[in-house]
Amino acid sequence: QVQLVESGGGLVQAGGSLRLSCGASGVTFRSYGWGWFRQAPGKEREFVAAITWGGGTTDYADSVKGRFTISRDNVRTAVYLQMNSLKHEDTAVYYCAAARPSGRVFPERYDYWGQGTQVTVSS
Predict the structure, then answer these.
(1) pLDDT of residue 5
(2) In CA terms, which of 27, 32, 58, 83 is 20 to 30 Å from 123?
(3) Looking at the DSSP assignment, which residues form a beta bridge with residue 5?
(4) Cis bond leading into 101, ω under 30°?
(5) SS3 108
(6) Residue 100: helix, strand or coil by DSSP?
(7) For residues 7 and 79, what is the distance between their CA atoms, to the nearest angstrom?
(8) So what's the pLDDT on residue 73?
(9) What CA–CA distance (Å, rounded) separates 64 from 108?
(10) Is the dihedral of CA 78, 94, 58, 53 positive or negative?
(11) 72 near 58, Cβ under 8 Å?
């Protein structure tokens, strides 16, 4: 059974940092590309960042470029999202997702999704 579990969310002041983690089980981790998406109250889910199965290519939403970094650890079968210089508008539930071979910015390409972790940035 495939399971993606996000962690690391919480409450942080604007300008602060958080590191989200996504642990994966039940998948051949190396064969998948990974993405982070978010959904704020009253808004549609939006793409945040993605990394290809080989880790050689990353994609970022314009709104987070230069502030967020996605990475993967094939040994620990985990994906991370380092979030710096957080803004109030980054407040959302963050989801990790897995796509084979890679989903890039397209949510419809992702096969598996986690339950999400709440990130709240106070202004």
Answers:
(1) 97
(2) 58
(3) 23
(4) yes
(5) helix
(6) coil
(7) 11
(8) 94
(9) 21
(10) positive
(11) no
In whole angstroms, what is the distance from residue 121 CA to residue 123 CA? 6
Phi, psi of 65 (to 5 degrees): -55, 135
Q: Is 42 exposed, middle or buried (0-12, 13-18, 19+ CB in 10 A)?
A: exposed
Amino acid at 76: R
Cα-based torsion angle of the residue sequence 71, 102, 93, 23 in order, rounded to the nearest 10 degrees: -60
pLDDT in tens, 66-111: 999 999 999 999 999 999 999 999 999 999 999 999 999 999 999 9
Fill in the amino acid letter for 36. Answer: W
Distant-in-sequence, close-in-space partners of 106: CB < 8 Å, separation ≥ 6:
none
List the structure tokens of 22.
């996504």
Task: List beta partners, residue 17.
Answer: none
Q: What is the spatial distance between Cα 113 and Cα 96, in angstroms, rounded to a whole number? A: 6
